[in-house]
Every structure is written in structure tokens, then in C-alpha cells.
Specification:
The protein is of the alpha/beta class. It contains 10 helices and 8 strands.
Amino acid sequence: MKKIAKKEVKKDIDMMRLMAKYNNEDACRNLLENLRWPDGVTCPRCQSKDIRNSYSRNQFDCGSCGYQFSVTSNTIFHDSHLPLPKWFIAIYMMIESKKGISANQMKRTLDVSYKTAWYLCHRIRAAMTEINPKPLSGIVEIDETWVGGKRQHVGHGYKGNKVVAAGAVERNGDTRLQRIDNRTHETLHNFIKSVVAPDAEAIYTDDFPTYKGIEDEDTRHESVNHSADEWVRGDVNTNSIENVFSLFKRSVMGSYHKVSKKHLDAYLDELEWRFNNRENPYLFRDTLLKLIHSENLEYKKLVT
């Protein structure tokens, strides 16, 4: 069978155009202003459009309530001393790196400290969380996996240093990834009900017994018996969600090297955002929109 070449998505911007077009603070601020206030600058406090611009301080003064603000006020960029061109490069690198980018690589690329690079990556990651995403429909594949490195001098199957991640993917659609506490019937069924539409056509899983009983009058449940080396039966398989988890594990091994339990959801959100926008030609713009509509993430919240 002849393999069909995957159509390449033409992006609205590449690294060379990004560096040429947004190589100074003014150009970056102008773009953020146009994205944040497409109908003209508006006071975040009283919504007035009676705004005076102080170009020397990159600030706006509201003529109605006297509030002083900038385009980065009350956003993820707030109180950052990193130049906006470096922010833009960091954002582009994170959305275009299929397997993610480590804080050490970001540190070397931007010529900043490791602490700055680590905090920068997590601030961008924090904005990649989807709020109330649309439930998955059609045919949905479900799987779960253990995340964590190997331990020496412990028995085979030791899971004390691992955590569980659950995943769902709609055929030819979006994915949903989440850290879960365990693989019990209640936990996995609650995850499925939270991400899959009630009228989905079918749910495909492996033969893990906990998935039994997930079907209802609207949605059938079928599984493949991995324990008997059955991976595909007709169109029933879990290859898509297994590929998503494979990509995540390659990211951990090849880029991040290790991921803490505390921050696992953030890394899953990052992969989910990239995967769900894999055919979005305006991914850089849309990621900027997420950033300017996300509140600042304080460093102490990440480390405590």
C-alpha cells in the first residue's frame, strides 16, 4: 500500500521572520497591544477608552480612573525583566519543538541563568492549559501509563517512584492528558466521563479489567487483548493514544530527562497544547493570546 504523504502545515511565521520582525521591545509591544486590544486600548480596571500613552515609560494612563498600566500588566509577562524579544523566541521554541525543550537548552539559547530559563518555561507552560475544553466525540481511544525512571536494587514491577498519567484521543482529533492518583475503577471511569462526550460513538481500550462497564446506550466499548498479543482488530486499536504517550516519554528521556510529580500536569498540558494545535498555522499568535490573557505565575508557587 502506498504511503500517503502528510500535508505540511504552512505556519504564519518561522524563526528567521520572527527574529527579523520582533527584534526590539517596541515591535513586540505593538504586537501584544494589537492582540490584547484589537479595538483600541482599554483600561483593565474601568474599561474606559479614554487612554493617554506615555511612550517614554511604555505605560498607559486612564483618563477616567487614573489607573496606570502597560500591555503586560496582569498577564503572564508581568514583572518579568526578560526582554520581550527573548520571550518571543522562547515561546516559538517551545511550540515548535515536537519533543519539548529543556530549561538548560533554553538557558544556552537565550544566554540567561538556569533559574530564569526554568521559570520562563513554566510560565509559558502555565498558559497552555485549556479551560473547559470540548469533550471528545466520535471514536475515542483511552489508555494509561506509568511515568518515572528505573530504580536499581528493587524487584521487577516496582512502582514506588512512578505516577500514573491517563490519556484519551479522538480519532483524527484532539487529545486529553492528565495525571491521576491510581488506576482504580472509580478513578479511570471518572477521567473518561470528564473528557469524553456522553454521546461518543465508541471507546477503545486495551484489556485492562478496570475499563469494563464504561459503555452505555449511546457509546459502545471495545478492547484489544494486549496480553494475548492482539494489537489491532479491524479498526479497534489504541495506537493513537499510545503514540501520544510514546512522544511524551521521548520528551522526558531526550529533553527533560526527569519530570517531578508536582509539575507532571504542566508538562502534559504543554504536549496537549502542541498536539491539539498541530494543524494550526497561527499557533504562535494563539499562544501569545493565551499568555496575555493568563495571570502571572509567581516563582514561589512553583517551588513550594
